[in-house]
Design brief:
The chain is mostly helical and 162 residues long. The chain has a single domain (8-158), classed as NAD(P)-binding Rossmann-like Domain (Rossmann fold, 3-Layer(aba) Sandwich). Helix content is 41%, strand content 10%. The chain has six helices and four strands; from the N terminus they run E-H-E-H-H-E-H-H-H-E. The strands form two sheets. It has a two-stranded parallel sheet with strand order 1-2. The longest helix has 22 residues, at 57-78. The chain is globular.
Length: 162
């Protein structure tokens, strides 16, 4: 198994960050702080925003697209300094994020079952699978890899939209 000793890893999901610990990175930075998310949610609800399970999906998708562009731009700018920049785009991964969107514990198994048909591999992913992909990109095994977006989504992004 690859080691990330003395590497810095930036993660946007807490579940994946927890799985990264076993690869011994020097630092794991996560982009989601529950207290901040809760404070933002409270402010939005107090301002009259309707609470909806997947409200904000458009802004979430736009932010992911922006990160894709950011990955390429930053890779071009930082390459001359020997810094590699890559991104991992996961599909549906079995984490608690769906509960944060308002899905109940009882609803998740049905959602997970429904999502299987949208993934070419016929299943949802596990946090450890995302962590392994990140470990590879951050390791010396990917020493000539930069500016790449690695989809860890069971083929979800290649499925036709019907």
């Amino acid at each position: 198994m690859a080691s990330l000793k003395d590497k810095v890893v930036i993660i946007t999901g807490a579940a994946t960050a927890l799985h990264m610990i076993k690869f011994q990175p020097r630092l794991v930075i996560t982009g989601r702080v529950k207290s901040r998310l809760d404070a933002v949610e409270e402010s939005l609800l107090a301002a009259g925003l309707k609470q909806d399970r997947f409200q904000g999906h458009a802004s979430y998708s736009i932010s992911k697209a922006a990160l894709d562009q950011f990955t390429g731009i930053l890779a071009n700018e930082m390459g001359e300094h020997g810094v590699r920049v890559n991104s991992v785009n996961p599909g549906v991964i079995r984490t608690g994020i769906y509960l944060k969107f308002g899905m109940s514990e009882e609803e998740f198994p049905k959602f997970s079952e429904d999502q299987k048909r949208t993934h070419a591999l016929g299943r949802v992913g596990e946090p450890d699978e995302v962590a392994k992909a990140i470990t590879f990109l951050a390791s010396d095994q990917a020493s000539f890899t930069s500016g790449q977006i690695l989809y860890v989504d069971g083929g979800h992004h290649k499925r036709p939209i019907i």
